[in-house]
Hints:
The complex is a heterodimer. By secondary structure, chain A is mainly beta. Helices cover 0% and strands 50% of the residues of chain A. Chain A has strands spanning 3-6, 11-14, 19-21, 23-26, 32-38, 44-50, 56-59, 62-65, 75-77, 86-93, 101-103, 107-112. In chain A, strands 2, 5, 6, 10, 11 and 12 form a six-stranded mixed beta sheet that branches. By secondary structure, chain B is mostly beta strands. Chain B contains no helices and eleven strands. In chain B, the strands form two sheets. In chain B, strands 2, 4, 5, 6, 9, 10 and 11 form a seven-stranded mixed beta sheet that branches. Chain B has a four-stranded antiparallel beta sheet with strand order 1-3-8-7, with no helix packed on it. The N and C termini of chain B lie far apart (37 Å). The interface between A and B is medium-sized, with 25 and 31 residues.
Amino acid sequence: GNSVTQMEGPVTLSEEAFLTINCTYTATGYPSLFWYVQYPGEGLQLLLKATKADDKGSNKGFEATYRKETTSFHLEKGSVQVSDSAVYFCALSLYNQGGKLIFGQGTELSVKP
Amino acid sequence: DAGVTQSPTHLIKTRGQQVTLRCSPKSGHDTVSWYQQALGQGPQFIFQYYEEEERQRGNFPDRFSGHQFPNYSSELNVNALLLGDSALYLCASSCIPGRGDQSDTQYFGPGTRLTVL
Lengths: 113, 117
């Protein structure tokens, strides 16, 4: 079946540290890949996306590259801020399934000043 | 441009009761999907509506039903509530796949927090 696996959290970093959150997927077909972020008490916000192999999505200093050979879509940021503290979700969607999203379990990030 | 809106924000019900949650999609979107997010988990797909019909359904019992109106807004109904139905219910809107560059991108509302006692 189709699934997404994320590294377990919580991840605790100091401000200005480098961030990597690992995400791997299993899919029948060629999925689109997404990172969503959820701040405490809020819904999900789209952070970035990539729709085909080798595409790089980027937004607000975050980046992720669609790696078909390793079925991965790891999220990176060079220098995190306290305001980046949130839960990050990796997700995939498949065109032939109407675009429904399949999410990983989420990774909580806590950035300390 | 108004984003996805949901109502109510919070809701408290008792076991066995019925609940209706509402969602208005982002302007220009015609497809609404509903997700259930249990505490500490990723969202799980419930179902998706397009052209006032249910197009897809996740692994949820028939107690979960929905409706889409001609203006594309949607309702989620849950009957015979169980304690395990306590969760954040998220609505997401999009364009039907195949129409436009952003057709596979879903935009989420703030959610409705349902507590079943």
